[in-house]
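Chains adopt folds. We examine one example:
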Amino acid sequence: MENLNYIYDRKIGEIHFPIQVSDVYYKHRGQPDKLQDPDHKAIIRGDSGEVLGMVGSKYEVITHSQAYRLGRSLFKEVFGSRPSVFKVDMNNKGSYCHVDLLNPKERISIKGIQKARDYKSGINEEYYPFIRISNSYNHTFALRYNLGFYRWKCANGLLMGAGTLGDIVISHDRPLEESEWYVMDAAEEFAKQINEFDEYVRRAGSIHIPKELLEVVTMDMLDRRYGLDQKPKLLKMSEVLRGTVPAYAAELGESALAAINIATDYIKTVENTQTVNSLQSRAMDWGMKVTGENFNMASYLNELRTYKERVIEKAHQF
C-alpha cells in the first residue's frame, strides 16, 4: 500500500469457515433420556466441531463471511471504490473477528494545520478512512460497522465512538436480509462524518497541552488512571508512553492532536484483544470532548497535573 505502513498480517481467508447450528439437549437427574432445550441453540464451527457459542432460539446467525461481504458493499456505497483488507483480528477459536477495510487511494489530506502556540509553522497530515467490521457467534460483539481513520505515517487508528453517525450496530435478532437493508440505508451518515474530520483534526492540533502532561493526558484518555495500588501496571504503561511522547510532541506540537496520536500508538501495543474497539473509540471520544466549545481545558489540565504529582511521580520514586 502506498505510504500507509503495512504492519498487520492480512489473513482474511481464516474467517471463512463453515458454521453449523445445533439443537441443545440436557440430561436431568433421574431422567433416563436427554431432554431438548427449546430456548437455546449451539453455534458450532463446522471444520473442527468446536462450540463457539450458546445462544437463544431467536438468535439470527450471520457468519463472518456474510458480515465481510456486507462490509465490502457498504464501503463501495460510501467511497465508490473497491476496498482492500488492511487488518484482520480474530481470536483462536474464531468466535469473534474484526476486519478493517480501506482503499489506499481514498486519502484525506489536511494541509496547513496550525500547531498550538506556534504561529510560524503549520503541518500537513494524511489519513485513510476505513470501515471496521465486527461480528461474533457468542454475544461478545453485535454485528457492527464502524467508521475510522488511519494516520498514514504510523497506521495509528482512530475509531468513531459508540452511538455516533459513524457507528452501525445490528442486533442478532435481525435476519441477514433485514441487516443488509439497515446497513446500506446508513451509508450516507458515514459520508457526513468523513467530511467533518478535517475540521476535527485542525481543532485538535490547535489545542495546547504541555509536553510534560501528554503522558498523563493519554492515561486519562484511555481510562488508565491507575492508582499506587496498581503500581506495576502504572509503571509499565508510563514506560511505553515516555518512549513516544518526545517524537509526537516534536512532530505535532504540544497539542491535543499529539496526545491522540500518542494514545493510538500505545493502543497498537495491546491490539488483538477484545478491548481494542473501545480503546480506539475512547481516543476519538476524548478528542470530540476537548475540542468542544465549552470544555474547560485549564481546569482539566490542573486536575491531571495534581494526579501526576501525587501518583505517577511518586510511583517512579519508590
